[in-house]
Amino acid sequence: MNIKRLENRIDEAINIREKGNLEKSRLLFESIIKDINKLLQKDSSKELKNIYATAMGEYVIQHRLEGGALYRKALKLGEDLLKYDRENKLNNPLSIRAVSNTLLNLGAFEKAEEYLRQLLPLYEGNSAQIGDTKAHISYCYFRTGRVNGANKLVDEAIEDIKENSAKKKYFSVWLSHALLVKSLILNSEKKVKEALEYAKESLKVAEKGRIKVRSNQSKDVIDYLQKELRGNN
């Protein structure tokens, strides 16, 4: 089984997960990780270890999306993966994201920010992924009361993502998230109409990219903001 085949299987599982079929994607990730572990018994190359780190990082995202009690399991998996990454000097960004984004789900925003900042040097020269990371840091700012900084940073994030020097296949995931963060920040500043426009744009991007999870998040924000507007009239 070659590396390219493993990468294609991971991409397939990601696509199925983003379309909302979490049960099927979980089984696919578990199958991929099982196969990689078998291969690692015979091949200890850094390339294969990096594929393992990527698969495990995506598997942590799987746990986060399923939510509930799985958040704690996701954090433990993420911490173990980051330890594995550092022991093998892989510098795989997903190893850090496995921890940072789970901490976001758990509400540990200041701790998550520390890990997110470690990602920026790893994405040097990759504007879209730098932008995506900035959007997550902006959300940390927002949730810890640093609204002005959050607003400025998320604008930078959107601009960086639209420049898009990274892989285009994740463009919709990154941009729809950044737009949604911008919407939340604007709403906190009582700019509800502007917030609604950004939420609608997030939904448009998510639906174009067929990202069911983000589409549902955007719809929830739109519904909330529309109720806010009706209440203010």
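That was protein one. Protein two is written in the same sequence-then-structure order:
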Amino acid sequence: MKKQTGNRGRKSPPQTSASTRQKQLEIEAEGIVRLNKYIAHAGICSRREADSLITSGRVKVNGKVVTEMGQKIKTSERVEVDGHVIRPEEHVYILLYKPKDTITTTSDERDRSTVMDLIEDATGKRVYPVGRLDRNTTGLLLLTNDGELANRLMHPSYNVRKIYEVVTTSRLSDEDMARMKAGVDLEDGPAKAYHVSRMETHPNGIKLSVFEGRNHLVRRMIQAVGSEVVTLKRTIYGGLSLKGMRRGRWRFLKDREVNELRTLVKLLDKKSLKK
């Protein structure tokens, strides 16, 4: 797939990735698929959440309520969730270099700039941010309509790595950095950085990696060692990076990147990735 770069005022046509086409071909070739998988591929929830929809009687197949987990259906059958007919949809994956003073939300009542304003010409499909970055935090943000992948990426059990570049009001000591690696106590429980190093480009700058996604986590960890954040940028999310990107721009993920994310959260095994 060709690299796409966002530019406001310039429309980019919706893209169909090879991974999307492959998924669609697999479903069509099988002819029969598990109902929870079919629902998840419609982009409305994860497979586990689809199981809950099924057991709670909210799913119909050909007009009849189905409550049995593990149920298999033909892909030509009519499936409804809460009275709405669903079909597996084309998934879209967008990497955005989020700038400062931008809200990570799909809309804002106060009419402030949102990340959706930056990708409004990217696709005709509705996508959602995977997690969030604070208004004044810059850096890598993933947006997609792949609900199953998004839910797993945000779930703490999958240990998705995030790397941040932080400039603080005061230079952190070696002891401060060691404390963050050992773990600091926050109001919602202990938190630690799995790697901390100094930045060569700023005397008060550090790089740190975390696997959690709690609100304001990095800012609160910095406060716990007696300093404050001046600037905060996320440079790595899972295997994705900002390499070659400019602030405020976006691009579609490459098939390889999508597959690596799916492998990371165990939606695709490593053997499939090597094929």
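The first helix runs from residue 18 to 30. Keep this in mind for the problem set.
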